[in-house]
């Protein structure tokens, strides 16, 4: 008997070109291929403009690939999908809605069962430490708290996949470190498949099972680095020689191919 295992996500030969307003053709992605297993945490690092955001948008079905395809659970992505959670660099919360009402937004838009949604929203707000802020408005929260609301909102409809595009890029260094730990807690609690784009090599290594390292534009996969570090992880891990070796290896890959930024 042949047992075939199916990747949760298969990115297969994905290329994407854009035509700029001046009529120039820009190749953003060139034959990107990798698989992501169910429940796996995969980070993506690469130089600015190498197509990381473009890749996430293609996976979410927000824009089409010029060539190649993406399969989620074996099904080709053919348009915007409701079974994906997306966290952006800015939390983009609706200022006139409370924290709880912001988290409930996908439940309303997708017309899901309200009672289930409310239960899940309450659980998620508890996990991200914001139960006491459910009835507050976004402007009453710090940047880190707002981003935690964004994460809770991205998970409320129980998506099969969480896409995160530089979610901590706008936060100060200390809040960013704290949020990295929070994200590990959330991931341990919900075990979603995560694709996480970052400019920070240390953040990528700390969080991930594997780090997809991309080249400068046109973005190609330089190497998919498996991070064989034990879990659960805490910040002390960053001071270990093993951690440093992964960071150095990925930095060398990026430097050899055009630098990180
Ligand atoms: N809608 C568009 N029209 C034309 N060019 C685009 C469009 N979207 C992206 N590009 C170009 O494609 C390339 C990849 O952009 P993308 O935003 O995906 O890169 P990135 O790796 O996410 O960058 P950063 O790390 O700076 O956020 C860039 O050169 C960008 O200018």
TrEMBL record:
GO function terms (MF aspect): ATP binding; ATP hydrolysis activity
Keywords from the UniProt entry: ATP-binding, Nucleotide-binding, Transport
Superkingdom field: Bacteria
Keyword set includes Repeat: no
Record InterPro entries: AAA+_ATPase (IPR003593), ABC_transporter-like_ATP-bd (IPR003439), ABC_transporter-like_CS (IPR017871), ABC_transporter_ATP-bind (IPR050166), P-loop_NTPase (IPR027417)
The keyword Kinase is annotated on this UniProt entry: no
A Pfam family the protein falls into: ABC_tran
Listed CDD domains: ABC_NrtD_SsuB_transporters (cd03293)
Domain called ABC transporter: residue spans: 9-241
Name by which UniProt lists this protein: ABC transporter related protein
Species this protein is from: Sphaerobacter thermophilus (strain ATCC 49802 / DSM 20745 / KCCM 41009 / NCIMB 13125 / S 6022)
């Amino acid at each position: 008997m042949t047992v075939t295992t199916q990747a949760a996500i298969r990115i297969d030969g994905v290329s994407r070109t854009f035509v700029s307003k001046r009529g120039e053709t820009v190749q953003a992605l060139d034959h990107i291929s990798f698989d992501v297993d169910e429940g796996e945490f995969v980070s993506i690092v690469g130089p600015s403009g190498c197509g990381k955001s473009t890749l996430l948008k293609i996976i979410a079905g927000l824009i089409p690939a010029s060539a190649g395809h993406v399969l989620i659970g074996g099904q080709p992505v053919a348009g915007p999908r409701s079974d994906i959670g997306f966290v952006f660099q800015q939390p983009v919360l609706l200022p006139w809605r409370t924290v709880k009402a912001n988290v409930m937004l996908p439940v309303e838009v997708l017309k899901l069962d309200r009672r289930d949604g409310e239960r899940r929203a309450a659980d998620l707000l508890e996990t991200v430490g914001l139960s006491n802020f459910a009835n507050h408005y976004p402007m009453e929260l710090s940047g880190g708290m707002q981003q935690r609301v964004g994460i809770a909102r991205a998970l409320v409809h129980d998506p099969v996949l969480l896409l995160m595009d530089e979610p901590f890029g706008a936060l100060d260094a200390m809040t960013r470190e704290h949020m990295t730990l929070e994200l590990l807690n959330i991931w341990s609690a919900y075990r979603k498949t995560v694709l996480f784009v970052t400019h920070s090599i240390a953040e990528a290594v700390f969080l991930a099972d594997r780090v997809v390292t991309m080249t400068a534009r046109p973005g190609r996969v330089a190497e998919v680095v498996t991070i064989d570090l034990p879990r659960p992880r805490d910040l002390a891990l960053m001071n270990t020689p093993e951690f440093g070796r992964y960071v150095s290896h990925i930095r060398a890959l990026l430097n050899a191919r055009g630098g990180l930024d």
